[in-house]
Structure to design on (648 residues):
């Protein structure tokens, strides 16, 4: 005798009961009686939140997604598509007490028994998942008979399309052809018309690791034939629609009322179902607007169950004079949908009775989010807003040329330029160890590169990548702390590990943002080129923030050094090292030659003076080493050399 099923009406569980088992044998505990004598409960085997949940309908094939003999209960149970609140992939949750036949936010299913095809005509018959797929399809019969699957990759927008598809194809055991590759929010989605390939692709979830160490998650869901396969409205349908819109248009106010157009008697009588969420329907409306009323100023789209505005974006170019749009009583779930139409120069907007309105903690936050997209807005949901504060830059303007360095005073200017000349002469000398004199005992240093999703090993900045402390990418506190170099010994040791360089002092731009008697903060920007290694002669751009305190030798002592390196632009490369020029100063400061730098280092070691005083002595003796040693010996015997000259 075959097993039979017993359904408990107050539970969402179906229990199989065999007639040859006594009633008292039934056990509701997880695992059944065979697990009663186990000492441990065993590991938790639940699905992670970002892993696809594979459901097998009773009676269907293992691992399959098609409807089985009991798939008809799917419509009766009232399953709805749940979202995690972000741009993730919807999950399925059973709701035994929810209202049946509820729309899932992606497809219009308020009429499960008679959703019309894409041609705009009603069609009868069909039920369940397969029936919906057939009714929603408006293409050829072969398209209707094929099974369609939607592949979704959360946060896939950040990946290069070619890289992502190649990575999937390399691991997928079966070849596949992605259909209609597109992005929605932060996710990537495309369609497949082959169940075997779709199932194989779903198994690749979390098997691909991107350049940032994240696993690529792949979701697969069966779906009706995509809307882009469905055919356009027929000519007679377009004519009826045009007549309907003409009756709803007020020429004196340039106002078009498309409120609840789906239920308009003129269209219903012709069996035309205008669902504006469908691309062809919205495109037909926009085409009629473009050809007949391009000067349209007010558009009412309320009560049309709109949950997306992708196709409405064409209005920006087709009807640029629109100032008022009514989107109230729709199903827009996120204010990000408005980004698709933010090119409209709206002064009045209606959004009340949309789910997105419930996402804001207060009215000011709501107004701020909407006005960020429509800065000229004067009225929102019928309420007057304060006049916007902004600048009208519609007229042609040119960006003013970049200004030169800013020092604040000539004294600060001379002080900083002397420091930079000494610092970079040592930095570019090949031996950066003497820079110990420039840093405070408790100094800190960090290096940052631009945020990039590409493979760092293929980047021309690969030599710097492993030490980059870009906090947009580095989230782990321990890693952030490790990449921050502490105390001057570690700082200079790290600087010695960086590629050897030659800085173009003519490109330097200096901006002083803070200076007091005890603190000086300034930023240096410019270009340099690498002089050895695999990136020899590569030109880089840099920006460096120095924070310094007074040193005992009347110089500067760096307490914080933050270096940002990027690839130079084409214009920066063209202008780099074009001609020898002084640092940004009206009084040029000479740059030391290689032989002078070598002499300076040797004299500093022999005299035990720091670099600043050693350079003064050599310059005074016109770079005659023997004469400098003689002068130094005489002055030291007389006690004329200050103690500050020996502080390193």
């Amino acid at each position: 005798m075959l097993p039979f099923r017993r359904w408990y009406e107050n539970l969402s569980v179906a229990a199989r009961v065999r007639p040859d088992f006594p009633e008292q044998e039934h056990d509701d505990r997880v695992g059944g009686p065979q697990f009663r004598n186990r000492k441990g409960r065993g590991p938790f085997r639940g699905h992670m939140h970002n892993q696809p949940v594979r459901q097998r309908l009773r009676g269907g094939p293992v691992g399959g997604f098609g409807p089985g003999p009991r798939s008809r209960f799917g419509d009766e149970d009232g399953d709805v598509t749940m979202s995690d609140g972000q741009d993730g992939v919807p999950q399925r949750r059973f709701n035994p007490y929810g209202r049946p036949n509820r729309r899932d936010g992606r497809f219009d299913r308020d009429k499960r028994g008679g959703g019309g095809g894409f041609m705009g005509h009603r069609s009868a018959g069909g039920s369940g998942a397969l029936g919906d797929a057939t009714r929603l399809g408006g293409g050829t019969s072969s398209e209707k008979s094929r099974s369609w699957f939607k592949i979704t990759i959360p946060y896939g927008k950040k990946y290069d399309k070619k890289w992502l598809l190649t990575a999937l194809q390399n691991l997928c055991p079966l070849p596949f052809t992605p259909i209609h590759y597109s992005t929605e929010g932060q996710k990537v989605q495309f369609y497949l018309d082959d169940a075997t390939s779709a199932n194989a692709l779903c198994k690749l979830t979390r098997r691909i690791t991107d350049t940032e160490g994240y696993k690529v998650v792949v979701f697969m869901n069966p779906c009706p034939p995509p809307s882009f396969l469905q055919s356009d409205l027929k000519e007679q349908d377009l004519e009826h629609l045009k007549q309907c819109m003409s009756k709803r248009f007020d020429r004196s106010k340039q106002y078009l009322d498309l409120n609840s157009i789906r239920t308009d008697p003129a269209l219903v009588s012709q069996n035309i179902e205008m669902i504006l969420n469908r691309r062809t329907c919205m495109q037909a409306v926009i085409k009629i607007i473009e050809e007949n009323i391009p000067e349209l100023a007010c558009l009412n789209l309320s009560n049309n169950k709109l949950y997306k505005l992708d196709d409405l974006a064409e209005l920006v170019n087709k009807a640029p004079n629109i100032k008022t749009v009514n989107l109230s009583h729709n199903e827009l779930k996120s204010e990000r949908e408005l980004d698709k139409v933010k090119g409209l120069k709206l002064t009045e907007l209606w959004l009340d009775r949309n789910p997105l309105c419930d996402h804001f903690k207060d009215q000011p936050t709501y107004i701020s989010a909407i006005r960020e997209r429509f800065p000229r807005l004067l009225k929102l949901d019928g309420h007057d807003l304060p006049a916007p504060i902004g600048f009208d830059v519609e007229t042609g303007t040119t960006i003013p040329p970049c200004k030169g360095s800013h020092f604040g005073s000539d004294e600060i200017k001379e002080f900083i330029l002397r420091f930079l000349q000494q610092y970079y002469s040592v930095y570019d000398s090949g031996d950066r160890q003497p820079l110990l004199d420039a840093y405070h005992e408790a100094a800190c240093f960090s290096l940052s590169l631009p945020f990039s999703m590409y493979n760092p090993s293929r980047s021309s900045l690969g030599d710097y990548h492993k030490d980059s402390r870009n906090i947009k990418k580095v989230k782990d506190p321990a890693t952030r702390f490790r990449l921050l170099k502490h105390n001057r010994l570690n700082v200079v040791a790290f600087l010695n590990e960086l590629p050897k360089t030659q800085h173009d002092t003519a490109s330097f731009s200096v901006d002083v943002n803070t200076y007091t008697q005890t603190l000086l903060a300034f930023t240096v920007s410019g270009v340099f080129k690498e002089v050895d290694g695999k990136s020899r002669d590569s030109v880089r751009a840099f920006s460096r923030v120095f924070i310094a305190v007074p040193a005992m030798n009347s110089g500067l002592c760096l307490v914080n050094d933050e270096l940002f390196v990027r690839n130079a632009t084409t214009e920066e490369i063209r202008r780099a090292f074009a001609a020898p020029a002084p640092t940004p100063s009206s009084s040029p400061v000479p740059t030391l030659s290689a032989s002078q730098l070598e002499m300076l280092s040797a004299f500093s070691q022999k005299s035990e003076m720091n670099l600043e005083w050693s350079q003064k002595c050599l310059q005074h003796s016109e770079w005659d080493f023997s004469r400098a040693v003689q002068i130094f010996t005489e002055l030291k015997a007389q006690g004329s050399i200050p103690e500050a000259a020996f502080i390193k």
Observations:
- Residues 1-145, 581-589 have pLDDT under 50 and may be disordered.
- Residues 221 and 294 are 40 Å apart (CA to CA).
- DSSP finds 18 helices and 24 strands in the chain.
- The radius of gyration is 36 Å.
